[in-house]
Amino acid sequence: MVTVLALPLAFLLREALDAGVSNLWHLIWRSLTASLLWNTVRLTVVVTVLCAVIGTLAAYGVERTDLPGARVWAVLVVVPFAIPDFVVSFGWSSLSSWVQGFRGAVLVMTLAVYPLVYLPVAASLRGADPGQEDIARSLGVGRLVTFFRVTLGQARRAIFGGCLLVALVILAEYGAFEILGFQTFTTEIFTEFRIVDTSVACALSLVLVVLGLFVLMGESASRGGGRVSRTGSGVQRALVRRHLGHARLPVLVAYALLVVAALGVPIGSSVYWIFEGGADSLVGASLGSAALYTAGYSLGAALVATAMALPVALLVTRHPGRVHAMLERTTFLVLAMPGLVVALAISYFSTQYANSFGYQTAPLLVLAYSIMFFPLALVCVRASVAQSSVSLEEVAGSLGVRRLPAVLRVTLPLIAPGIGAAFCLVFLSAVTELTATLILIPTNAETLATQFWAYQQNLSYGQAAPFALVIIAIAAVPSYVLGRFFDRLPRRGLAQAQREVV
């Protein structure tokens, strides 16, 4: 399993060695690399900070205040995660030329990925003990200081974990930046591969991997030490929601603006272009075929990635150690690699060592999806495994039940919600994947993403819009289920698992 996940990195190292170390350094130390580094780093920092602020404040409003319609808002602020980044950029850029370049990339990526912070922070805030805030207030600490030092302190691991995912997603994004005309490492890597300059593309990809390593190390260091969960055995005090008072109307307006910008604009622009395109926009046969292919590939990837994540989650949770922890953390590097690199790595090993076995077939595409989104599956599965007490397996063993049957009969039902959430998260990600699909999609097949991209590249917005809407419709269901997973997680003991959620 580790070997399969290491294929993209092995491919990059092999290509780099073939190019030669001196040539590799020459390719890296160029003015173009410095420009790409500046664009990528500043965008990652700005969007990550904005997502941290928006996701945390939105979660606090839903979970800790008497916000009217809190459960409805909880769904509406999560659903934008179901909209692909390139669809969000299409929705905004097709309506206004203002949304281009750096400012367009900041706007689009913030609206597209802030739920990655909102989801774990909402779960963490709901599972945290409000008694710690009461103690701080009884000691004379003000509300604002209590919020920053105690409330956010309890949720810091969830915040930093969400920021980690945001940063890695931005490093690997391609479609949105291509539409917005903003040059990053990923867009340049795709351009170099397209003109068959593999050495340059691999050199830039290695820089991207190094950036991913820095992100992982920074997130680990920023978590800090200390406990964020309750240590006592007593019953946690019931949560009393804070009254918004005169701030109720401004807060409601802020939530409405967020939902309109993240959800309303992409959907509204797609509907607009469908009406602009008229009857020619509704290409029924192609749309139906693409939807079936998309669903089939995504279901296969979700099954494989979830199955791969289960033994790893059991290993790192039941047998913690530095080696296991390091192996787990390094799997997140896959998220920082463009899907193009993963696809080319699989293609390379297939043609070089397997006589092109499986090349441009459905199983190879499913394998690529599984490698790319394995870390996302591991996040959810490990969170549930961390909550299931190992003592229950020990009790089953004391009754004569062997280890494997005990896991299947005792542990598996307990972690079923996490497995379901992992399946939905991988399915959602595969539905919206673009770059790897463009390389590995079987002959005479198409997905919703590739068809949308083809029409969008030709500026056929009316024909691209229906594909965007169907992508959103298919992805909305697992996005809702994912939100429900994080909604129920704390009630099953998030205090034990919130360090593992992200």
What count of structural domains?
1
Report the sheet with the most strands, covering strand number, pairing sense and barrel closure.
Answer: none
Fourth-level CATH superfamily: MetI-like
Total helical segments = 27
Low-confidence stretches: 226-235, 490-502
Overall mean confidence score, pLDDT: 77
What's a concise summary of this model?
The protein has 502 residues and is mostly helical.
What does the model show?
This protein is an all-alpha fold and 502 residues long. It has one domain (2-223, 248-501): MetI-like (MetI-like fold, Orthogonal Bundle). 77% of the residues lie in helices and 0% in strands. It has 27 helices and no strands. The chain has helices at 2-5, 7-19, 21-28, 31-64, 70-76, 85-93, 101-113, 115-127, 131-138, 143-154, 156-172, 175-180, 185-194, 198-223, 248-277, 284-318, 322-330, 333-336, 339-353, 362-387, 390-398, 403-414, 416-431, 435-440, 448-457, 461-488, 494-501. Helix 6 (85-93) crosses helix 15 (248-277), helix 16 crosses helix 20 (362-387) and helix 20 (362-387) runs antiparallel to helix 23 (416-431). The longest helix is centred in the middle third of the chain and has 35 residues, at 284-318. Mean pLDDT is 77; it is low at 226-235 and 490-502.
